[in-house]
Specification:
The protein is of the alpha+beta class and about 500 residues long. The protein has four domains: about 55 residues; about 150 residues, f41 fragment of flagellin, N-terminal domain, CATH 1.20.1330.10; about 100 residues, Alpha-Beta Plaits (2-Layer Sandwich), CATH 3.30.70; about 110 residues, Immunoglobulin-like. The chain contains seven helices and 20 strands. The strands form six sheets. Strands 9-10-6-12-13 form a five-stranded antiparallel β-sheet. It has a four-stranded antiparallel β-sheet with strand order 5-15-19-18. A hairpin with a 2-residue loop joins strand 16 and strand 17. Helix 2 packs antiparallel against helix 3, helix 2 runs antiparallel to helix 6 and helix 5 packs across helix 6. It is rod-shaped and about 175 Å long. The two termini are about 20 Å apart.
Length: about 500
């Protein structure tokens, strides 16, 4: 049936043309934008995924900038730490040179002071964008990643950089929790044979060797003191004569820090060595015996035995069970003057003992010298007083401000024998502090480098993934465009033919 009101062929041709034009429009948009999915209308699910990934990629670009900033800051700190370590090593060379007595110690002291000033200059200048990792104790966090969980929750991750305080700040003693239970001062000088009478003085500790038993003339007896052996051969049978003879032999031997006296049949040996215990052994060919009792030694008197005379120094002993927290301060008071060290992050009682040593040595108190050692597992600061008796006290309190890692470096003194000895011991502590700081910064820098590389690669991977989701295949789009253009032309031609069909009805009415 022919109709001029309804042209089914034209409607079909028009629908096909519309479909072709729509496809052509999509293809042209794809070519012009380069994207197969440029809006949520194209594919809502894929578009949403791509937008989340795009936001992550932009975030990682910002993280990359943060890592670059952190890397530069840590690099400055590492290089400064290495420079400080080199300067401390040069300072050690000057201190070692000052061990000789025939050198100009005044000139060497000038060099040491100049190096100290340069160290302070380096530490103060070691900042990047206003951040100095060589001063203070607060940690610095560098944004390193965004972690997305399966449920979509996003959390930030940081790389924590621990400051390494290489300043010479004295710190501030706190007023918090009493820590005096963690530190014990034990006076060690002037200990009698029974262990009594200890005080903080230059008087040495005593050993008593009581001679008893049967003595025959012509017998030889020995005393070994601090590794040196002295002998006496009896000429009488009197115990007092044997005691006097061995006493004279000890004094004649000239053993450093050792002197002897005699009271009747008792030989009294005194040890005035600052930080060295002295062992005494007795032996002989006769039947006489020696009952040894030494100051500072709680062992009972023994016959033909070995005893130790404790060193003269007093002990500041730290706890073997308690920990050390940042801000914990410990104080040693000598003759009413306080010497404080306040712990920083991750320090131990070894650090506290060595810190107090540098503080006390830096004060250069005449006759006072120090040493750090371990006794029965406990870190101990030994303080020796070569002069008259002084008061000695200890204390501890939390809540302080940490002492700088190079506190006292500007007080190193190589103009005196005592100063040179103290400086040589303390410079090792300072060098270890500098090396540890440089090593920690180097480790942190390596971690930042690794994370930076990973973030860069991850960003590239995200971009590639986004491209795989939304980018158009332009080769296929080009081929499709040409095909659709041909289809469009054919569709137009088909519609034109369909529209001309009703005109044939006119011939029926002629």
């Amino acid at each position: 049936m022919a109709s001029i009101l309804t042209n089914t062929s034209a409607m079909v041709a028009l629908q096909n043309l519309r479909t072709i034009n729509s496809g052509l429009e999509d293809t042209q948009k794809m070519i012009s934008t380069g994207k197969a999915i440029s809006s949520a209308r194209d594919n809502a699910a894929v578009w949403a995924i791509s937008k989340v990934m795009e936001s992550d990629a932009m975030s990682f670009k910002a993280i990359n900038d943060s890592l670059n900033l952190g890397q530069s800051t840590v690099t400055v700190a590492r290089q400064a730490s290495e420079t400080v370590t080199d300067l401390l090593t040069q300072m050690k060379e000057k201190i070692v040179a000052a061990q000789e007595e025939n050198v100009d110690r005044g000139k060497l002291q000038d060099d040491v002071s100049a190096l100290s000033d340069q160290i302070k200059s380096v530490v103060n200048a070691a900042q990047f964008n206003g951040l100095n990792l060589l001063k203070g104790t607060d940690d610095v966090n560098i944004l390193s990643s965004l972690d997305r969980s399966p449920d979509g929750t996003v959390t930030a991750s940081d790389i924590t950089i621990f400051r390494q305080d290489l300043s010479d700040d004295a710190g501030a003693y706190g007023t918090g929790t009493d820590l005096s239970a963690n530190i014990t001062a034990t006076p060690g000088g002037n200990l009698a044979a029974d262990g009594s009478g200890g005080n903080f003085s230059g008087t040495g500790n005593l050993l008593e060797a009581t001679v008893a038993g049967t003595i025959v003339a012509g017998e030889t007896y020995n005393l070994q003191v601090a590794g040196e052996t002295v002998s006496f051969t009896t000429t009488t049978t009197a115990t007092a004569d044997l005691a006097a003879g061995l006493t004279a032999a000890v004094n004649t031997a000239g053993i450093e820090g050792i002197s002897a006296g005699v009271t009747g049949s008792v030989i009294e040996i005194t040890n005035t060595r600052s930080f060295e215990d002295v062992t005494v052994n007795t032996s002989g060919s006769g039947a006489a015996t020696f009952a040894l009792e030494a100051g500072g030694n709680t062992a009972a008197a023994a016959t033909t035995n070995t005893q130790t005379i404790a060193s003269r120094a007093s002990d500041i002993t730290f706890s073997t069970t308690a920990g050390v927290a940042e801000g914990d301060g410990y104080r040693v008071t000598v003759a009413g003057v306080n010497y404080d060290y306040i712990a920083g992050k991750n320090e131990t009682f070894e650090d506290v003992a060595r810190g107090l040593k540098t503080v006390i040595d830096g004060a250069a108190v005449e006759g006072i010298s120090t040493n750090v050692t371990q006794k029965s597992g406990a870190w101990t600061l030994e303080i020796d007083n070569a002069g008259s008796a002084l008061t000695l006290a200890d204390a501890g309190a939390a809540g302080g401000t940490a002492t700088g890692g190079l506190n006292g470096v500007d007080a190193l003194d190589v103009t005196t024998d005592a100063g040179v000895e103290a400086a040589l011991a303390n410079i090792e502590t300072y060098i270890d502090t500098g090396i540890e700081a440089a090593a920690d910064f180097g480790s942190a820098q390596g971690r930042i480098d690794t994370q930076n590389t990973f973030i860069s690669n991850l960003t590239d991977s995200l971009k590639a993934g986004i491209g795989a989701l939304v980018d158009a295949d332009l080769e296929a789009a080009s081929a499709r465009l040409q095909a659709l253009q041909v289809q469009q032309q054919l569709g137009i031609q088909s519609l034109s033919i369909a529209n001309q069909a009703p005109q044939s009805i006119l011939s029926l009415f002629r």
